[in-house]
Amino acid sequence: MVTKSTIMDTNSFRAEHAEQLDQNTRRLTDKRSEVLGESYRLFYRNPVHLVKGQGQYLWDASGQKYLDVYNNVASIGHCHPAVVAAVHEQMQNLNTHTRYLHENILNYTDELLKTLPSEINRAMYMCTGSEANDLAIRVAREYTGGTGIIVSQEAYHGTSELTSGCSPALGSGQPLANTTRLVPAPDAYRLGGEDLGDWFADQIQQQIDDMQANGIRFAGFLADSIFSSDGVIPNPVGFLKKAVDVVHKNGGIFIADEVQPGFARTGDAFWGFGRHGVVPDIVTTGKPMGNGIPVSGLLAKHDVLAAFSDQIPYFNTFGGNPVSMAAAQAVLKVIQEEELQLHSQKVGAELKHELTQLMHKHECIGDVRGAGLFIGFELVKDRESKAPNQALALDIIEELRNTHRVLTSVAGPHGNVLKLRPPLAFQRQDIDWLVGALDQTLTKLKRSF
After folding, report:
1. Are 45 and 429 within 8 A, CB to CB?
2. Keyword Transcription regulation on this protein (predicted)?
3. Structural domain for 400, as ranges
4. Total number of domains in the chain
5. What number of CA atoms fall less than 13 Å from residue 331's CA on the CB side?
6. How many other C-beta atoms are found inside a 10 Å radius of the C-beta of residue 96?
């Protein structure tokens, strides 16, 4: 039996929900199935038909307004005017590939590298995070001479052959590569009094030893520093450092997948890895970089990248094109000029505080954890056993969508952690909408659990 994908199937529309849909929604879901095939997934038992976005808000086809508490694609807010203007202006002049000279890619790279440790001083561009992680794995293998990659138990790093082979969250229908090894999530909530840094470093070493015993040379550790697919695991600050030291001691490199924690999201640092006091060998990014325009990047230490780039030509037709670079430049400028890192830190702390207060009223809330505007809200059957309550979590997100017009989803191996990750346009006044909706939803659903 094929195990369902934790990131694709946990909160999704399925055929058995079709009878409950209104006529127009049913028509659209049937058409999607007919022309797009069966691999795609829609959120919610009653899918949302969106037609407009502005900042942290979305509107559906019937004019209903929603609060977006999930979308890091439009990282600085839906349809941000600065991005719209930058893309429009560049589209009127030129859009072509990177085999011609153009200033945008150079100007953006200069500004982006200023946000990184000085050791990271080279950049390459693609269109998606999957492409960036795919290239990162290739670079790691060229630099180290190894093939073995370590990822966390529920990691998601992309959809290409290389990255899906390192993405256990896709489920057993997508087999892992025989050179991939998994480490348990560094779940401080369940590990209790363990020294998380020592524990996690030991888990990494065990998998390196296993590779060696099976004739596999270690190449690197690929991780999202907030472990979002594992259930949002941000703390304690600094726990990753000992693991990265073990990686380097064994001749491997650390690839920081910053698609989710990067670009000021965590508030404490511009990049998620910065909270842990480490310098990655490679940094990858994607979605939040262009606020909806497809663009991604690989940023690396010169000597690490040279092992690949000095030997192998690389070309990505749309990667680094002038329009995508214009969008990326606008996003970076907005983050800096609107001080969105500080905003994320302050508003995220207030949101986390208000969510934590709900624990006094609702025993089903096991843990509230996060950094900046990236918060995990864990639902349990009881606090003593910490047994995951997926059924409740899924009912909550449906109630939030249907009654309160709040959009979010779940994460973690058991699908019991609400993943609260709004656009950075999220404001203090939105806290009341979200927290009030959660409070009312939990009160209503108490009767059923």
Report:
1. no
2. no
3. 48-76+340-448
4. 2
5. 34
6. 12
Look at residues 337, 353, 375 and tell me which one is the last residue of a structural domain. 337
Q: What is the pLDDT of residue 447?
A: 63
Query: Is there a contact between 320 and 105 (Cβ–Cβ < 8 Å)?
Result: yes
> For the segment 196-227, what is each residue's pLDDT rounded down to a tens digit?
999 999 999 999 999 999 999 999 999 999 99
Instruction: Find, among 274, 282, 291, 272, the residue nearest to 333 by Cα.
Output: 291
Q: Residue 209 belongs to what H/E stretch?
A: helix 196-213
- Taking residues 45-63, what's their average pLDDT? 94
- Measure Cα distances from 274 to 42, 234, 392 in Å: 34, 12, 34
- H or E element: which one contains 303? helix 302-309
63 plus 88 within the same structural domain: no
- Domain limit, last residue, from 302, 337, 372: 337
24 inside domain = no
- Furthest C-alpha separation in the chain: 64
Which phi and psi (to 5°) does residue 378 adopt? -95, 130
Quote the pLDDT of residue 10: 79
pLDDT over threshold 60, residue 25: yes
Rounded distance between C-alpha atoms, residue 381 and residue 142, angstroms: 47
Q: How confident is the model at residue 1, as a pLDDT?
A: 38
